[in-house]
Structures are given as C-alpha cells and as structure tokens.
C-alpha cells in the first residue's frame, strides 16, 4: 500500500501512477488548491498521537507510575491540530503567548498545558497564570521572581518545573554525556545554579509549587541511551531535594526529540519501544536511588506530526549542470523552497521526494530539488534520483515535512506561505489558508 516509509500511511499510487493521499489524487488537490501546499494525513497524525499516548501509559503502568505525553506545539500548531492532540488524550506544550492563544482558542483546558521558553515575557507569564496552565517550566532566576510576582498579584500558587542542563546532548545514534554547558536553556548542574534555583523556588511555597525537573536533550534521537544519562542525573537531583529539603517531588519530564524517518534509510524506534525503554530507565534509576517512580512526562513534537505531513510542489525549471567529467546534476526548481522549509538551510536537513503526478520508465538522474529563492543554499532535497524525463509542470511530493516546516516558514522574497490542507478519506479541509500577497502588503503602514 504505502509507496514509501518516508510518506504517511495514507499515501499510495493511483492506477495511472499518481500519488494519492487518503484516496485523493494529488493532481486534483494541486489543481484545486494550488501549489506549494502542505498536506496533513489526519488519520496518520491521529494514529501517531494515540500510539505515543497508549505506549507511554502502558509502559509506565508496568512500573507503577502514570505518564503524560505533551505534544510540543512548536513542531506545528493551529487550532485544529491542538484539538486533534487533545482528542487523542495528549497534553500540549506551548512556548509563547501566540501558541498559548491557539491553545485557548482550541479550548484546551489550562491544566493540560505546559509553558516553555527561555525568555517568557511578563505578559506571557500573566496570560499563562490567568488561563491556569498546569505548569510553567522555569528557565532563569529572573523568571523565578517574575512568576512568583505574577502569582502574588493573582493570589495563586503557580505550578512550576525547573529546567536543568542535564549535560547530555543527543542526536540520532550518538549522544554526549558531557555536552557543552555553553547554550542558553536551563539551569546548570555543574556550578550550583540548579541548587540555587531549587532553594529560591522552595522559599516561596505560597507562590510557587515545585513539581519536579525537566530536561530536553536534543532532537531526531534514534536511541534511548542519552535519555538514560539525563534521567539518572534528574533522579539524583530529586533524591538530593528529598534529603536536603525533605520534599518528594512528584514529577519528572524527559523532553522530546524522538527521531523520525526523513530518508528511506532512517529507522526510528517505534513509540512502544521508546516508551518501554524509558520506563525501564526511569524505574531502574529510581530503584537504585530508593525512590518511588514519579509521574513522568515526555514532549514529542516531530514524531507526531512530522511523518504525517508532506509538501506538494510544482516543477518550474529543469537544468542539467555538469559538475565534473563524470557527474551531471539535474537541478529541479520548484515553486517554494527555503521559505516553506528552511531546515535544509538551517541544519543541513535531508529529505526525500518522489514524482507525484506520474511514474516514469525514464532512466533515473541524480537530481537536486531546489527552491525559487535568491540563495544558492535554497535546497529542498539535496540528492535524490528522479526520472530523467522530469519536466516543468510535474508535481513533486516531499515526505515528512509535517514538523518544523510551516511553523518555521517565512515570507522571504515576499513569497506567501502555503496553506495547510488536512486530508481525510471524506474530505480535504483547509487548516491554514494560503497567505496572499495582499496579506503581506496589508502589514505596511498607511503613509507610504
Ligand atoms: C523542541 C522541544 C520539544 C520537541 O522536540 P521534537 O524534536 O519535536 O520532539 C520538546 N520539548 C522541548 C523543551 C523542546 O524545546
């Protein structure tokens, strides 16, 4: 059924060779809605959300503790997406007043929302407390004071976690247990900052209620080893709080970062495997410390919406370029690029694509799919084999673009941002409409 693991479960080819999503021919979608367009396989996104919720619940149930899955809204957020994860039993992480406003519009109950950010404004903190968010993850000493002051003004007790630089940095198969401290997030374990933060939070018991510690060790992680080191460090810290302050902290958050397949060769852990491994890690560390297993939360973003999304483009130009005697690279330019997917430019991210309007028997050529922006780094898919007869007017579908594409999109070169179309068997729904040039012009002041 599924033409490729990089695409969502609802993708297959029609009898005449076009790609279809949940039974909708992508040629028809392109005709009706135009390109570029982001498409979301709603059933696939739901299935992923549910799979993470069920996997973490059942895995932690076995070690006698509850577990919560927070969807990291920064991966992709709109009202419909917030409702989708809420329907599937997930909570929601936001990291700005804007993301909180979406959660509010979606009607997500405050207690199911976590607020992140290394520089939350007073307005954002106020909005979060007014909405009754379930937790604010503290990231600086200034913020401890700001949240305490905002709680005092409202005469409430703010539930907080302390974000810790666990000293672990994980990425795909590797992790560094002594990651550099030289980054902006969290309180440092090595120079007494965390201890000072704990003391300050515990000194304001009628304003701040410390739930526990939080760490987020990286992104696109394929193995659980990095989480083991981070979990051990956080649990040691909990033990220290129990000894020094006589307080048993009830919660622990291990962050997100579970990897997905961007390329056919990527082989990420299934949700159940990741959940089982994390449950074992936490249970072992707690039993070594002689502590009960706390309520554990994780915060996947990419692994819920990433594989459920794809981007549909139209080819505008095809340009063979002789690189050297043995190599001709075919530059295939599409009608979007770094404005709708800046990840290749930002992180050298790799993607995979297929011709979406037809199949072809033509011999494959080494192609590079590029955008329409005024940067030579404007690459969509660095290296991919496409049929040698690829031509202007063909449709190209890039897989696994559901996360960190629309949410990171810009209007560079005054190229309006594409729509997000939610596709189910029954219908195609516009989650976010296409931005227009008039939208961009409307931002200009009156006196020109
Ligand atoms: C980005 C982020 C996440 C989500 O990361 P994914 O790679 O999308 O799973 C979770 N928690 C925090 C604190 C983050 O900054």
UniProtKB/TrEMBL annotation:
<protein>
    <recommendedName>
        <fullName>Diaminopimelate decarboxylase</fullName>
        <ecNumber>4.1.1.20</ecNumber>
    </recommendedName>
</protein>
<comment type="subunit">
    <text>Homodimer.</text>
</comment>
<dbReference type="InterPro" id="IPR022653">
    <property type="entry name" value="De-COase2_pyr-phos_BS"/>
</dbReference>
<comment type="similarity">
    <text>Belongs to the Orn/Lys/Arg decarboxylase class-II family. LysA subfamily.</text>
</comment>
<feature type="binding site">
    <location>
        <begin position="299"/>
        <end position="302"/>
    </location>
    <ligand>
        <name>pyridoxal 5'-phosphate</name>
    </ligand>
</feature>
<dbReference type="InterPro" id="IPR029066">
    <property type="entry name" value="PLP-binding_barrel"/>
</dbReference>
<dbReference type="InterPro" id="IPR009006">
    <property type="entry name" value="Ala_racemase/Decarboxylase_C"/>
</dbReference>
<keyword id="KW-0456">Lyase</keyword>
<feature type="modified residue" description="N6-(pyridoxal phosphate)lysine">
    <location>
        <position position="74"/>
    </location>
</feature>
<feature type="binding site">
    <location>
        <position position="347"/>
    </location>
    <ligand>
        <name>substrate</name>
    </ligand>
</feature>
<feature type="domain" description="Orn/DAP/Arg decarboxylase 2 N-terminal">
    <location>
        <begin position="58"/>
        <end position="305"/>
    </location>
</feature>
<feature type="binding site">
    <location>
        <position position="257"/>
    </location>
    <ligand>
        <name>pyridoxal 5'-phosphate</name>
    </ligand>
</feature>
<keyword id="KW-0457">Lysine biosynthesis</keyword>
<feature type="active site" description="Proton donor">
    <location>
        <position position="374"/>
    </location>
</feature>
<comment type="function">
    <text>Specifically catalyzes the decarboxylation of meso-diaminopimelate (meso-DAP) to L-lysine.</text>
</comment>
<dbReference type="GO" id="GO:0009089">
    <property type="term" value="P:lysine biosynthetic process via diaminopimelate"/>
</dbReference>
<dbReference type="InterPro" id="IPR022644">
    <property type="entry name" value="De-COase2_N"/>
</dbReference>
<feature type="binding site">
    <location>
        <position position="343"/>
    </location>
    <ligand>
        <name>substrate</name>
    </ligand>
</feature>
<keyword id="KW-0028">Amino-acid biosynthesis</keyword>
<keyword id="KW-0663">Pyridoxal phosphate</keyword>
<dbReference type="Pfam" id="PF02784">
    <property type="entry name" value="Orn_Arg_deC_N"/>
</dbReference>
<comment type="pathway">
    <text>Amino-acid biosynthesis; L-lysine biosynthesis via DAP pathway; L-lysine from DL-2,6-diaminopimelate: step 1/1.</text>
</comment>
<feature type="binding site">
    <location>
        <position position="404"/>
    </location>
    <ligand>
        <name>substrate</name>
    </ligand>
</feature>
<dbReference type="GO" id="GO:0030170">
    <property type="term" value="F:pyridoxal phosphate binding"/>
</dbReference>
<keyword id="KW-0210">Decarboxylase</keyword>
<feature type="binding site">
    <location>
        <position position="302"/>
    </location>
    <ligand>
        <name>substrate</name>
    </ligand>
</feature>
<dbReference type="InterPro" id="IPR002986">
    <property type="entry name" value="DAP_deCOOHase_LysA"/>
</dbReference>
<dbReference type="InterPro" id="IPR000183">
    <property type="entry name" value="Orn/DAP/Arg_de-COase"/>
</dbReference>
<dbReference type="GO" id="GO:0008836">
    <property type="term" value="F:diaminopimelate decarboxylase activity"/>
</dbReference>
<feature type="binding site">
    <location>
        <position position="404"/>
    </location>
    <ligand>
        <name>pyridoxal 5'-phosphate</name>
    </ligand>
</feature>
<feature type="binding site">
    <location>
        <position position="375"/>
    </location>
    <ligand>
        <name>substrate</name>
    </ligand>
</feature>
<dbReference type="InterPro" id="IPR022657">
    <property type="entry name" value="De-COase2_CS"/>
</dbReference>
């Amino acid at each position: 059924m599924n033409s490729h693991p990089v695409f969502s479960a609802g993708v297959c080819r029609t009898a005449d060779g076009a790609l279809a999503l949940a039974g909708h021919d992508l040629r028809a979608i392109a005709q009706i809605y135009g390109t570029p367009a982001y498409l979301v396989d709603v059933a696939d996104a739901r299935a992923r959300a549910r799979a993470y919720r069920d996997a973490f619940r059942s895995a932690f149930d076995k070690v006698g503790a509850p577990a919560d899955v927070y969807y990291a809204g920064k991966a992709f957020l709109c009202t419909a997406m917030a409702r989708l994860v809420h329907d599937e039993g997930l909570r929601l992480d936001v990291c700005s007043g804007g993301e909180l406003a979406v959660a509010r519009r979606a009607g997500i109950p405050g207690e199911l929302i976590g607020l992140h950010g290394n520089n939350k404004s007073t307005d954002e903190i106020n909005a979060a407390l007014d909405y009754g968010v379930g937790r604010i993850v503290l990231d600086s000493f200034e913020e401890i004071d700001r949240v305490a002051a905002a709680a005092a003004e409202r005469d409430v007790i703010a539930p907080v976690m302390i974000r810790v630089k666990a000293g672990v940095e994980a990425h795909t198969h590797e992790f560094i247990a002594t990651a550099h401290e030289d980054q902006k997030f969290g309180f440092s374990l090595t120079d007494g900052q965390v201890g000072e933060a704990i003391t300050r939070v515990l000194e304001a018991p009628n304003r701040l209620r410390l739930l526990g510690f939080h760490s987020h060790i990286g992104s696109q992680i394929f193995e659980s080893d990095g989480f083991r080191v981070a979990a051990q460090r956080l649990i040691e810290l909990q033990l220290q709080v129990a000894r020094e302050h006589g307080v048993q902290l009830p919660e622990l958050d291990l962050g997100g970062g579970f990897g997905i397949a961007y390329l056919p060769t990527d082989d990420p852990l299934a949700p159940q495997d990741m959940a089982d491994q994390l449950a074992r890690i936490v249970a072992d560390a707690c039993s070594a410390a002689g502590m009960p297993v706390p309520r554990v939360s994780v915060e996947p973003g990419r692994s819920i919406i990433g594989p459920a999304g794809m981007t549909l483009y139209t080819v505008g130009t095809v340009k063979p370029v002789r690189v050297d005697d043995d190599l001709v690279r075919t530059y295939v330019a599409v009608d979007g690029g770094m404005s709708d997917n800046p990840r290749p430019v930002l992180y050298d991210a790799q993607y995979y694509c297929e011709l979406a309007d037809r199949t072809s028997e033509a011999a494959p050529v080494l192609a590079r799919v590029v955008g329409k922006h005024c940067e030579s780094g404007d690459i969509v898919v660095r290296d991919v084999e496409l049929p040698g007869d690829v031509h202007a007017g063909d449709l190209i579908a890039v897989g696994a673009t559901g996360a960190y594409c629309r949410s990171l999109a810009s209007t560079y070169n005054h190229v309006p941002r594409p729509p997000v179309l939610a596709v189910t068997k029954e219908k195609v729904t516009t989650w976010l409409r296409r931005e227009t040039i008039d939208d961009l012009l409307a931002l200009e002041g009156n006196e020109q």
